[in-house]
Amino acid sequence: MRYGTDLLSQVDILRRTKEATILAIESSCDDTSAAVVKNGRQELALRISSQIDTHVEYGGVVPEIASRMHTEAICSQISSVLKDASIEPAQIDAVAVTAGPGLVGSLLVGVSYAKAYAYVLNKPLIAVHHIEGHISANYLDHPELVPPYLCLVVSGGHTMMIEVLDYGRYRVLGTTRDDAAGEAFDKGARALGLPYPGGKYIDQLAADGSTDSFVFPNAYVRGSMYDFSFSGIKTSLVQMIHKNASRDSQWIELHLKDLAASYQSAIVRSLVEVASRAIEKTGYRTLAIAGGVAANRCLREELNASAAALGATIFMPTVIHCTDNASMIGAAAYYRLLNGNVSGLDLNAVPSLPIDGDFK
Ligand code: KG4
Ligand code: ZN
Q1: Which has fewest Cβ within 10 Å: 49, 94, 303, 330?
Q2: Atom 20, ligand 1: which residue's CA is nearest?
Q3: Pocket mutation for ligand 1, best pick of 154, 202, 272, 293 (most atoms within 8 Å of C-beta)
Q4: Global pTM value
Q5: What are the tens digits of pLDDT across the range 147-168?
């Protein structure tokens, strides 16, 4: 769809003045979130409605339930966030939404709502890539962070070592060949009998456990500088449990904290190793991290230590901005807008799309 002259001139003015208050929507998985973000850096308000209490019963996200719950939550999330920000709908300069990747039914709720809202307000619509959102979460917490820099993306669905060349320009240096880091945490947690999503439970238990009680393989790939493979760590845990718990039904319970600490340490060790290699080999001295697993305390500590040893500066989002939230979408949308990267009302949800892919 082409923009009419009125919308085009609105985009021109916003790009020229660099002043934009953006209403952002995120509904790619199981959080219905809305935010108001000013100039890509200032969070005026953020609302997150989590569905996890419902999905926990099933041990994972049930896509049909997720879509239905987004539909039920989205209207009140938008009106509440505008109220929190003391903003009238007419004061919004643009509407942003995660258009992919994610669960298609969940994405469609946000995309349809954003299109309707942009149409009614006669404001530009900005489609945002979910992972670009995670990376941009850092802009909300660190005014001094500007591209170029390295970013380690560690979410429930993605694990990537990325070079952020500029706003909206990325080069993927490495990625996972199987599970994502978040999946490794969640599958390991499930094997240990912990609730979904298990990353934060492993994080908590590991705090009182020993990291050298059990040995797990590395998750970096031999012969590749920046790729990961987490399936071996998970298989190793499952086999260990199978061998020991079949002889002693109390085995997991007895060793839970040490298992959590050793398992977490193996995941973190590999992430830190690849991030350190990237700093050393590329010459960048700025590293950011992004995604739900960036909330992990051990990862944050180890990366801090390794960045300090390499003379690099590390940027991490605050914990609320690590997991899915709409503020990160508003931050990414601002820079898309400045690049003139706006979408029409024919925008569709895209369940899988590379970070350098195009929604149109
Ligand atoms: O980025 P995110 O909210 O959703 C996706 O885009 O996938 O990431 C969710 C992932 C889950 O796998 C969850 O277990 C993990 O982030 N996670 C953690 C922690 N908090 C969330 N993993 C390890 N330690 C944590 N503290
Ligand atoms: Zn996410």
Answers
A1: 49
A2: 200
A3: 293
A4: 0.97
A5: 999 999 999 999 999 999 999 9
